[in-house]
Design brief:
The protein has 287 residues and is α+β, with helices and mostly antiparallel strands. It has twelve helices and 14 strands. A five-stranded antiparallel sheet has the order 4-5-10-6-7. It has a four-stranded antiparallel sheet with strand order 11-12-13-14. A three-stranded parallel sheet has the order 1-3-2, with helices on one face. The chain is globular. 47% of the residues are buried. Bound molecules: flavin-adenine dinucleotide. Flavin-adenine dinucleotide (FAD) binds next to strand 2, helix 2, helix 7 and strand 10.
Length: 287
Amino acid sequence: MYPAQFDYHRASSVAQALDLLASKQDAKLLAGGHSLLPMMKLRLAQPANLIDIGGIAELAGIERSGSGVRIGALTTHADLASSDLLKRSCPIVAEAAGKIGDQQVRNRGTIGGNLTHADPGSDLPAVVKALEATLHLVSKKGKRTVKASEFFVDLLTSAVGEGEILTAIEVPALGDGIGSCYLKFEHPASGYAVVGAAAIVRLDRGGKCESARLCFNGVTATPLDAQNVAGALAGKTPDDAAIDQAVNANLVASDPMGDVFASGEYRVHLAKVFGRRALKLARDRAS
Ligand SMILES: Cc1cc2nc3c(=O)[nH]c(=O)nc-3n(C[C@H](O)[C@H](O)[C@H](O)COP(=O)(O)OP(=O)(O)OC[C@H]3O[C@@H](n4cnc5c(N)ncnc54)[C@H](O)[C@@H]3O)c2cc1C
């Protein structure tokens, strides 16, 4: 399959990419190309202009920032997975990135493209939502930040607007007493998540659950935030029985997705299984 005809432009800076976005009709940014190019080959996307931001060095990299870690939007999944800083400070990002597709996908695909594409089967959306990450955007009008809870608008639709570029994602450093875990039930061919569970558990000194976060990919059109489950665990000793009870009694998904890979009912079942497992591993890692 060949994409429809388009004009190719290569930007060497964010400023140049913004100029191109403003001056070219029907333009799309190209990062790693591992979601956009398949869409173009299937003619599900037919942009007249492609603006390649893949060579903009200022958009890539992982560094400490304040109490967290700032990840450039062009950072590849492979770089996330092998980052010592992330493994130390926010290991769930490295863990999830290491589970994306295969080595070739991880070498080309970027966190910015993954989040902006907002595919419910992608791995990183639930992770940044569980982390309550902050996303940094820039346009000709200026800069703005969007919370991860507001970034995923609908199926394949993110908060990135016309003329905007996602520049960075800021995640918190998870300190002592906080454990995290990302698990997924993956499609055997593509590696995409049929369901993925991102769990974060914070324990107090007595071993009780101070707070928890549990978010899912693959269950609903945008990442599902299981706040009821987290609420049910708060203040309790999160032993296996408490986690099983919190998930079984409180995990609800209105309008779960169903498709050729899995029915909505099966996805909710998987979410309960993987949600319990992820919370238990996060708890063990917090202790
Ligand atoms: C065989 C295969 C298996 C895969 N398996 C998985 C998997 O298991 N898990 C998973 O999560 N993903 C998987 N993916 C998707 C992969 O992770 C993609 O690379 C990623 O989702 C998109 O990142 P990209 O850099 O390739 O973005 P692109 O394809 O270049 O762009 C995707 C979209 O985001 C926009 N965009 C990109 N960067 C920016 C930016 N900085 N600011 C604003 N808009 C931007 C583009 O305009 C486009 O609309 C798979 C892909 C393939 C081909």
